[in-house]
Write a structure and sequence with these properties.
By secondary structure, the protein is α+β, with helices and mostly antiparallel strands. The chain has helices spanning 2-21, 90-93; strands at residues 26-28, 37-45, 54-63, 70-78, 81-89, 101-110, 118-128, 133-143.
Amino acid sequence: MEMISSKLFFFSTLCLLYAFSHATDIHYCDKKADYDVEVKGVQISPDPIARGQPATFSIAATTGKALSGGKLLIDVSYFGWHIHSETHDLCGETSCPVSVGDFVIAHSQILPGFTPPGSYSLKMKMYDGNKHELTCIQFGFDIGFGSSVADS
């Protein structure tokens, strides 16, 4: 049974690494900071995002300390203009407690059909339960011209 479990872990790790090898480019907010959570990659599906359709952002990360909870603060900009902010409970986006090692944060939502197509940037800050900043990343994503609620 232990051999099957280790093979399953190895296979799932390979799948995760393959998916994130085709991931979006990320940048840390402060290149000199020593964040407690290291982000390995961001996968966006579909890419580009289709208006009025579900979109999923999956963030592969690793931590050197266990996390019992926290918050994610997300800011979205469109051509450099801040257009949207939202806050999420860390435990609503990943399984808690987060153990030392690798974990994935996944968030899905449907963007309104009237969302303008184009290039966007997203900034995500992660805080622990004591409001200590664990990481801060930025990355770009595109919303395509196709699909909207009106097209259905």
